[in-house]
């Protein structure tokens, strides 16, 4: 799996995706999320893989263990490099997801990496405490979910940059810390709450960053990507 910034392809159609990707003359790490997958289905994943890109298939599965396990068995066949579930689904659900993924991976191929979403980067501590009735700090909740995910045998978590260091200390440096909520210092945060710059992400312990609108909505997406890549690589 590449270590370059993961570009969130939050577009409604495959056509929009191809248009967006055409000026990038290299192989990238891209993310297919709900918006795109629910319109285009598996074919978009096959196509992006054929084009030579690494693919994070971000469907954030969250259901009973049997349902998630069977769904993962099917998703394993799509050839994505990275998939995810909601850690709030629990340890048994995450273990079923991992088993499904292993069962669905054909012999000779390596199974996709699988990570658990902790607290979404659009969630504030106040919101978490009031809406989810979790009475700890958000850092404690995220690290708790990370330990649960680690214990279930998954490869890492989605978290914000602000919790990445504590997770690495609790679960070890090989446990992935994939962090969305990335913005340039002058950028609009939109609906994200726990945000950081690409440089701070590297300094504070992210293993991968996910960047959507700071690239996709930029005047020149290629320039924005190169700037973010440079900031990310400079701090390595
Ligand atoms: O799992 C994710 O990728 C994810 C988890 C999370 O906590 N926060 C989060 O923003 N994401 C995804 O990361 C991307 C962030 O997009 P931007 O806010 O436009 O950079 C979106 O595609 C989200 O679906």
UniProtKB/TrEMBL annotation:
GO terms for molecular function: orotidine-5'-phosphate decarboxylase activity. Substrate binds at residues 10, 31, 58-67, 121, 183, 192, 212-213. It is an enzyme of class 4 (lyase). The active site is at residues 58, 60, 63. One of its GO terms (cellular component) is cytosol. Residues 4-228 form the Orotidine 5'-phosphate decarboxylase domain. Its EC number is 4.1.1.23. The keyword Ribonucleoprotein does not apply. GO terms for biological process: 'de novo' pyrimidine nucleobase biosynthetic process; 'de novo' UMP biosynthetic process. Gene3D superfamilies: Aldolase class I (3.20.20.70). It catalyses: orotidine 5'-phosphate + H(+) = UMP + CO2. Pathway: Pyrimidine metabolism; UMP biosynthesis via de novo pathway; UMP from orotate: step 2/2. Keywords: Decarboxylase, Lyase, Pyrimidine biosynthesis. PANTHER family: OROTIDINE 5'-PHOSPHATE DECARBOXYLASE (PTHR32119:SF2). Belongs to the OMP decarboxylase family. Type 1 subfamily. Homodimer. Catalyzes the decarboxylation of orotidine 5'-monophosphate (OMP) to uridine 5'-monophosphate (UMP). This is Orotidine 5'-phosphate decarboxylase. The lineage of its organism: Bacteria, Bacillati, Bacillota, Bacilli, Bacillales.
């Amino acid at each position: 799996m590449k270590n370059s910034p993961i570009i969130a392809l939050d577009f409604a159609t495959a056509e929009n995706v191809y248009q967006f990707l055409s000026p990038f003359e290299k192989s990238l790490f891209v993310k297919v999320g709900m918006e795109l997958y629910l319109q285009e289905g598996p074919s978009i994943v096959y196509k992006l893989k054929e084009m030579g890109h690494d693919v994070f298939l971000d469907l954030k599965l969250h259901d009973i263990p049997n349902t998630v396990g069977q769904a993962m068995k099917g998703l394993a066949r799509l050839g994505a490099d990275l998939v995810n579930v909601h850690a709030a689904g629990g340890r048994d659900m995450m273990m079923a997801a991992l088993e499904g993924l292993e069962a669905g991976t054909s012999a000779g191929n390596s199974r996709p990496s699988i990570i658990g979403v902790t607290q979404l980067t659009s969630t504030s501590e106040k919101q978490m405490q009031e809406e989810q009735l979790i009475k700890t700090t958000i850092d404690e909740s995220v690290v708790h979910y990370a330990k649960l995910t680690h214990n279930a045998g998954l490869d890492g978590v989605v978290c914000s940059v602000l919790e990445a260091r504590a997770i690495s200390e609790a679960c070890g440096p090989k446990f992935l810390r994939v962090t969305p909520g990335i913005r340039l210092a002058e950028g609009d945060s939109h609906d994200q709450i726990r945000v950081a710059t690409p440089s701070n992400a590297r300094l504070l312990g992210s293993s991968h960053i996910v960047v959507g609108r700071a690239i996709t909505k930029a005047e020149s997406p290629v320039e924005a990507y190169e700037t973010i890549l440079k900031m990310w690589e400079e701090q390595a």
